[in-house]
Specification:
This protein is of the alpha/beta class. The chain contains 1 helix and 11 strands, in the order H-E-E-E-E-E-E-E-E-E-E-E.
Length: 99
């Protein structure tokens, strides 16, 4: 494996590792269940540029107050390219975002 392939592999691995995460920073979640059962195969997830985000099979919660609610994300993503390119862009596939 040459250096170029190694960098691409590491970058894609990082994107896939981050693509199925749940974030609840700054939120108050009481008596709620958050379930994320996402299946991702052959997915490229990329955020290229300044202040971009790309989410695949994710549940993102930021600054939200959720009470007595269920949030379930059971997405199946196959052969997908998900990309946010440029500046201040967001690309979502099989995702739920609550601000």
């Amino acid at each position: 494996m040459n250096m170029k392939n190694t960098v691409v592999t590491l970058t894609l691995g990082l994107c896939v590792a981050l693509s199925t995460s749940t974030f609840a920073a700054g939120s108050k979640i009481n008596k709620s269940k958050i379930i994320n059962k996402s299946t991702n195969k052959n997915v490229i997830n990329a955020a290229i540029g300044k202040d971009n985000t790309a989410n695949v099979g994710s549940i993102n919660i930021k600054g939200a107050k959720i009470n007595k609610s269920k949030i379930i994300n059971k997405s199946t993503n196959k052969n997908v390219i998900n990309a946010a390119i440029g500046k201040n862009n967001t690309a979502n596939t099989g995702s739920i975002n609550i601000d």
